[in-house]
Each structure stands twice: as structure tokens, then as C-alpha cells.
Amino acid sequence: MNNKVILDDWLNNDLPDKSQDVIMGDPPYFEVKGEFDFIWSSFEEYLIDVEKWAVECKRVLKDNGSLFWFGDRKKIAHSQVIFDKYFNLENNIFWQKAEKCQMEMFDTLRSFYCRGFERILFYSNHHDLVNNEQNNVMNYIMNERKKMNWNYIQMDQFLGIKASSCFWDKPTSHDYIIPDKKHWLKLQTTGYFKRPYEDLRKEYEDLRRPFNNDFKLSDHFFYTNEKNKWEHQTKKPVKMIKQMLHSTTRKDSKILIPFGGSGTDVEACIDLGLNYTCYEIDPKHYETIKKREKECLKQPSLF
User: Fold this and answer.
1) Which positions ≥6 away from 264 have C-beta within 8 Å?
2) Hey, which of 10, 20, 53, 189 has its CA 20 to 30 A from 88?
3) How many other C-beta atoms are found inside a 10 Å radius of the C-beta of residue 270?
4) Model confidence pLDDT, tens digit, residues 216-243
5) Neighbours of 104 (CB within 10 A)
């Protein structure tokens, strides 16, 4: 592992193109909370930086990578318009962080009642990875079918299935599905499809975006902020970050943390055994992250 916590603006990074598996982006929200939220002279100026962040995320994120972007429940709509130009939106996550809310506040604001919450945009990178020329798995299966001069109906009849979703020429989903081993072995009896199933499966798994929803998460998160000694105005729950990362990574995944904050993402990566590169522009928060990192490295993972 080559884990780093760097005191600098993350836009000054020297990361290679398409090198990061997951980006955990928790940027300033603009005039919401914390002194870092009030450094822009206008919202328009803030959005110019949002565009810069989106472009750099696009450069360093792998084609099969995942991106999480936190934001204020209202203002993130403007960031979403920008990020939608570069990435494929998978979920607009509603993070509820309080069980109760003062109803009187909404009478004053003249808006509908809601519990305290924030938004998290969850993106995949390559909108049409399955149609990408690099998808040798899809191309191999398609070409073998064409060599047999079979259409999809004939393929279905041969395999004894009703719908052959694993043999699309033009997939209707960005997650391509390959046959299971039983069907693959039957296809090999035709004299075609000679590639070993294990090799095909490995290439397929390496190609597609990691996603394992072991915690059965929906697009409505409920995590209350944990009390800890690490000082920061906008801390996030470690449990939430761990579960988000667990769902979208492999053991060798590289995580980019553009805005280090109090080091919550660093702690989550250490507990999960993930590689991380963390940037923090504020010297005070940088020292907090380094102390937290050192303490976490001394403790065995309990996750």
C-alpha cells in the first residue's frame, strides 16, 4: 500500500489518468457551515470550482469507478447539473441524520416539514461501458453467436430459457450479464465458445464496476453523527462511509479523498484495508487527519 495524507489543494495532485477506483467527495457546500464554506464571493464563483472538481474527477477516475459527492439538500442540485455532464447518475441518496426536527422552523421558512438531511450523489463513470470496444467479453460472446449463424430465439431454445439477457448486441443496461457456468458448458458442446469459463468470468468481473450491496442499503440512508474527539464542523459517520466503501470496492481498490476534513474517510479506508490518497488544504485539519491516521493504524480493525 502507498497510503498518503497530503497538505495541499487536491487539484494540484499528480495522480495518473484513470487511476482511482472510488472518489469520496465531501466538498464545501457553500455558505452552509464552517469557515471553508465562505471563501467564495458568489455562488457563481463556487460553481466554477465545482466544474473544475468534476473535470479532475473525470480525469483520475477509472472507467469502472464510482464517485460519491456530498452536498446541501438544495444547493447540490446545481452541482448535479455539472456532474451529470461527466458521469452517469446511479442514485440521488437522501441521508437523514436526525430523528427529530423542529417543526416551528419550517413554519418560518414556509416550506414542507423534513428531518435534518443531506444529499449524496452516487455516480458511475462510463455511461456505456458495455458497448465500449474494450469490452472483449461482450464482443467474444457476440462474435461466437454470429459464427454459429444463430439468432437470439435459437440461442434461447438451445439453452432452454425464456429470455437470453446474456447475449445482447445492443444492451439496454450499463451492466452486461454473461451466462452462468451451466449454460456456458452447454454452449461449448456446439464446438464454439471455447474460452474457459473461469477466465471469462474473471475478465468480466475485472471489467465491470464493483458493487456488492451486502448491507441492503436503499437510496435513503439513516445514520446519526457519531460523537468523537476529532474536531471539525461537518463530520460524517464512520459507519456510513465504511458501508458505502464496502459496497463499491475490491480489496485492491484505490480511494481518492479530495477533501480530508476530520479524517473520517481515512479511518474507514484503514479499517477496510483499502488504499487511499487524501488531500486537505487546511493545516489544522491536516494535523487532525494525521493524528487520527496514526491512532487508527495502531488498532486492529473491528469492522
Assistant:
1) 230, 235, 236, 237, 238, 241
2) 10
3) 21
4) 999 988 888 777 776 666 678 899 999 9
5) 8
**Can you give the residue range of the structural domain that contains 287?**
4-125+213-298
What is the rounded distance in angstroms from the CA atom of residue 106 to the CA atom of residue 110? 6
Residues 93 and 19 in one domain: yes
200 and 294 inside one domain = no
SS (H, E, C) the chain: CCCEEEECCHHHCCCCCCCEEEEEECCCCCCCCCHHHHCCCCHHHHHHHHHHHHHHHHHHEEEEEEEEEEECCCCHHHHHHHHCCCCEEEEEEEEECCCCCCHHHHHHHCCCCCCCEEEEEEEECCCCHHHCCCCHHHHHHHHHHHHHCCCHHHHHHHHCCCCCHHHCCCCCCCCCCCCCHHHHHHHHCCCCCCCCHHHHHHHHHHHCCCCCCCCCCCCEEECCCCCCCCCCCCCCCHHHHHHHHHHHCCCCCEEEECCCCCCHHHHHHHHHCCEEEEEECCHHHHHHHHHHHHHHHHCCCCC
pTM here is 0.82
Residues of the chain short of pLDDT 70, as ranges, are: 1, 31, 98-116, 127-135, 162-177, 230-234, 300-303
Asked whether the beta carbons of 234 and 261 are under 8 A apart, the reply is: yes
- Across the chain, mean pLDDT equals 84
Separation CA 16–CA 13 (nearest Å): 9
Measuring CA to CA, which residue among 228, 259, 264, 257 is closest to residue 36? 259
The total number of structural domains in the chain stands at: 2
| Statement to judge: residues 110 and 144 lie in one domain | no
Which pLDDT tens digit goes with each residue over 277-289?
999 999 999 999 9
**30 and 170 belong to one structural domain:** no
